[in-house]
Amino acid sequence: MSIISIFTGTFCNEEELLAALAKKSGYTLVRDKEIVQAASNLSKMSVSKIEKAFSAKTSVFNKFTHERERSIAYLKSSLADMLMNDDLIFEGFCAHLIPKEMAHILRVCLIADIKFRNALCQRQKKISSSESAKLIRAMDEDRASWVHMVHQAHDPWNAGLYDIVSPVDKMTRENIIDLIIDNAKKDIFKTNRSARRALDDFKLAAAVEVALINEGHHVGVKADNGDIIMTINKHVLLLTRLEDELKSIAGRIPGVKSVQTKVGSEFHQADIYRRCNFELPTKILLVDDEREFVQTLSERLMIRDMGSAVAYDGESALELIKEDEPEVMILDLRMPGIDGIEVLKRVKQTNPLIEVIILTGHGSDLDRDICLSLGAFAYMQKPVDIDELSEIIKKANERIRVKLGRQPAAS
Questions:
Q1: What pTM does this model have?
Q2: Strand, coil or helix: what is 28?
Q3: Intra-chain end-to-end CA distance of the chain, in Å
Q4: Is pLDDT at 410 greater than 70 in this prediction?
Q5: Pairing relationship of beta strands 164-167 and 105-111 according to DSSP bridges
Q6: CATH at residue 33
Q7: In what side-by-side order are the strands of the sheet with 227-232?
C-alpha cells in the first residue's frame, strides 16, 4: 500500500501515460482539479481564484489580500485529507505540497527534451514552432515559479526533488510504468507508523495554517507530534504582541500540544509584516495620471489598512482588469488617451461588479450626471478629504460584499 506523486512537463504524452499507469497499478488518479474543488468547498473561494495560485504571475493585490497564501493553505488541508487513503497517484502542482518529511511517498518526474515537446505541441495544437515554443515557455514558467516557492529550487526538473526522473522521449511507456510500479512496491514506500505520524503532522500544520490565514496572518507552520513551530519571515514592530496572537490562534486547534514562534532568515528584510483585515477593502485600483498625487493617496490609504495598486492611464487600467480584477476603482476623468468616462463605460460593460468612484479636479455637473448614469458608485471632487474618501470606499466595498453574499444588507 503506497502513494505516488507525479509532476510532469507539458506535451510529454503525460495524459496517456498517467491513464495507463492508473489502469495497470489499480491506483486512483487524483489531479489538481479535484484538490482545487475540495479546497473551494472548504474555503468558499471560487475555483478560478484558487487556480491562480499555480500561476507565476502573482496578483498585484496579493500583498494586501493574501489570496494566494490562503488558497495554498486550503489546498494543503484538502490534500492532507486525501492522503489519509492509500493506493493513490497525485498528479500536478499539488504533488509538490506533500512535505519531504513524508518519505514514504514515491516522487516521480516525467519530462522530455524541448524538441520532442515542441513537435508534439505543434501537432496537438496545430500551431507554428514559434507559437508552441512560446506556449511551452509560459507553462514552464508557472512550474518553475511554483517549485521555487515550495522548495526554493530554480529547476522544476531537478533530480534531487524526485525519486525517479523518467525521460518519456527516451523510454517506452511500458518501461516507465513498470519502473514506477516496481519502485512503489518497495518497503521504503509502504505506509507505516512513521509515515502515519508524518501525515498527522502535515494535517495538523495545514489546519493551523488555515486558522491563521483566516485571521489575516501568514507565517511558516511546521508540526512535530503535536508541537507547532511558527516562523515569522517579515519584519514586525511589535513582535511579542504578534507572537501572543499567533500562539492564541494556533493553540485553539484540536491536537495542538504546544506552540512556539521564531523569526526566520528573512525577518530583517525591508518588507513589513501586515495582517490582512478581510473586513476592509484591499483590492483598490487608483487610476490617475498625476503620479505624485496618486502615490500619496495610495500611501494614505495604506495607513488605513486599505491596499491599492496604481495605474497612470486608462489603457493600463483596462489591461490590468483583464487579468486581475479589483473590487473598487478610484478613477480620474481627465487623462491622456482613454478618458475616465470611457474607462467607466468599458468597466461597467465587462466587469459590472467593480464599484467605481470618480475623483476629479476638472469635472462639471454634466460629467457628474453622465458618470452616475453609467453606474459610478460616487462622484467626488479634488482636493478630497481622506477620511471622507475612506468612508465612501468602505461603503462601496460593503455593496460588493452584499452582491457576493458575503454579508447581509444593512437594515
A1: 0.86
A2: strand
A3: 57
A4: no
A5: parallel
A6: 3.40.50.300
A7: 220-224, 227-232, 258-263
